[in-house]
Amino acid sequence: MRKVPLLLMFLSFSTFASLESLNALKPPYTVPDLPYAYDSLEVAIDAQTMRIHHDKHHQAYVDKLNKETEGKNLNLLTLFKTVSKQSDAVRNNGGGHWNHSFFWTVLSSNKDQNVVPIKLKAEIEKKFGSWDKFKEAFEDAGKKRFGSGWVWLVRNAKNELEITSTPNQDNPLMDVAPVKGRPILGADVWEHAYYLKYQNKRDEYLKNFWTIINWKQVQEYNLEAQMKRGDF
Ligand code: MN3
Q: What values do phi and psi take at 133, rounded to 5?
């Protein structure tokens, strides 16, 4: 009996510290609250953009996804693994919901969380040659994404970190993704994510993106938790 209220308490937390809980979500879906104030990321993303992005764009994905998945019993991860067999509306809005829920959690204005853990930094430097080369490769993938989409740092099936980019609201968990993996970090490069502050300068948005990353989330809840569970 005690487990039920604890589980409900956990599910009622509006942020997804754990990817497992995000992947397990089933309809009806809801937009999680931001784990910080709209204006707390001003050094990189202005409050109005955050408000419209979260309250309007994310809400719209959720509303459409609920309409499309009413009565279905698929969780998001299963939905992505079979996305080639789903409708475009499920693919776009399912991706939209997952990607944004994930995105809010990898951002933070907390200076302690903005510090890259030594272990992760070392792994990234080993994989990409240097920290600057990693940042350059990530920014490049974002700049080269034509139209709307996302740039990701994933852990791939070979247990390696890899940078990839997806169009629209696709993500690397989907069976249609050219590079599959478990997202560790992601940046939304749709114009709605940056246009009010940066207009056409996506490159400046991506440069400033590094100042608001929640590396604690990236390391502890995204990378390490997945390795412990032995995903892939
Ligand atoms: Mn967006």
A: -65, -40
State the Cα–Cα distance between residues 49 and 131, nearest whole angstrom: 29
Compute the distance from residue 130 Cα to the ligand 1 centre, in Å. Answer: 29
Give the model confidence (pLDDT) of 125-170 as tens digits: 999 999 999 999 999 999 999 999 999 999 998 889 999 999 999 9
Ligand 1 centroid from CA 28, angstroms: 20
Range of the structural domain that residue 88 is part of:
6-105
Q: Say how many Å lie between the CA of residue 171 and the centre of ligand 1.
A: 13
CA atoms within 13 A on the CB side of 23: 16
Query: Which pTM was predicted?
Result: 0.92
Domains: count for the chain: 2
* 204 shares a domain with 147: yes
State the distance from the centre of ligand 1 to the C-alpha of 122, rounded, in angstroms: 30
